[in-house]
Amino acid sequence: MSGPLAKQAYTREEARRLVGISERQLKSWEEQKLVAHHTAFTFLELLALRTLVKLRGDRVPLSQIKRALTALSKKLKHVENPLTELKLYADGKKVRVEIDGKAMDAESGQLLMNFDQVELRRMLEFPGKDPAAEDRERRATAERWFQRGLEMEQTGSPIENVIEAYEKAIELDPHSAGALVNLGTIHFNGRDFAKAKKFYERALEVDPEYALAHFDLANLYDERGDRTKAVEHYQAALRIAPNYADAHYNLALLYQGSNQTMRAVQHWTNYLKLDPASHWANIARKELAKLREATVVKGSGG
């Protein structure tokens, strides 16, 4: 492959950041067999995650999504993964699928009347718009801007265009935690820590249980030398998502740097259970071996 989509795989952390979900959310979807477990994600697997994020953002229950995917796999034998091969969208709390320009109920397989969207809106409009419908439409537009920002990041678009897309998502939906975190990370990478901190904190105001936001804020404090705050937010990320491998790794480094050997050993060990085969795992093993050797030498010297 050549061009802007040349990257073959994304780490779990990269995949989560790109689609705006926590490790806990991802593990839950894996446990429910909505997506397969991966340590690295291809572009198609990112598409599957994005589709799930969109359906959940439109308030479709997970049980309904699972039933729809199971039904589609049985009815459409040529389709291996409906999340990547079909255009799925929410209609109320049901999942619809578009096939050859026609709308079908994903669970029953029944074809639906396919009105032109503009004409349908005219038919449904009455004097005085429904505030709930306006809110749904606004959130849907915000989600489209968020997805556009993700796509532009992946294809190497100018960073100012990416920022504009995320800012439009937040303007339409101030509760778009994924867009807030991604803006924070863009400013973090640009070394504008004050702006990055502002966006991470706003994301946590929206969703205090957003593990990725805690992790990214911990990275910021770590970079600025505030170890106490860094530890606090890494621990918060692990409280929400105990199997957050990268948080274990960074905490191990912090504890090792402050001579808290036993805590460092604990987090290196936890990290290696979660990620035993990567390049970073090799580094973790070396650091763990150094700590254990130093502990043995210190013990024998006493």
Structure description:
- It is a single chain.
- By secondary structure, this protein is an alpha+beta fold.
- It has a domain at 1-111.
- It has helices spanning 12-19, 23-31, 43-57, 62-75, 82-85, 117-124, 131-154, 159-172, 177-189, 193-206, 211-223, 227-240, 245-257, 261-274, 279-301; strands at residues 10-11, 40-41, 87-91, 94-99, 102-105, 111-112.
- The strands form two sheets. Strands 3-4-5-6 form a four-stranded antiparallel sheet. Strands 1-2 form a two-stranded antiparallel sheet.
- Helix 8 packs antiparallel against helix 9 and helix 11 (211-223) packs antiparallel against helix 12.
- The longest helix is centred in the middle third of the chain and has 24 residues, at 131-154.
- It is globular and about 70 Å long.
- It starts with 9 loop residues before the first strand and ends with a helix.
SSE inventory with pairings:
Elements: E1 10-11, H1 12-19, H2 23-31, E2 40-41, H3 43-57, H4 62-75, H5 82-85, E3 87-91, E4 94-99, E5 102-105, E6 111-112, H6 117-124, H7 131-154, H8 159-172, H9 177-189, H10 193-206, H11 211-223, H12 227-240, H13 245-257, H14 261-274, H15 279-301
Antiparallel strand pairs: 1-2, 3-4, 4-5, 5-6
Helix pairs in contact: 7-8, 8-9, 9-10, 9-11, 10-11, 11-12, 12-13, 13-14, 14-15
Q: What is the count of DSSP helices, taking H or I runs of 4+ residues? A: 15
Mean pLDDT: 81
Rounded radius of gyration (Å):
22 Å
Distance between the terminal alpha carbons, to the nearest Å? 59 Å
- Order of strands across the widest beta sheet? 3-4-5-6
Task: Assess the beta-strand content as a share of residues.
Answer: 5-15%
Measured as a percent range, the helix fraction is: 55-70%
Reading the helices and strands in chain order gives EHHEHHHEEEEHHHHHHHHHH
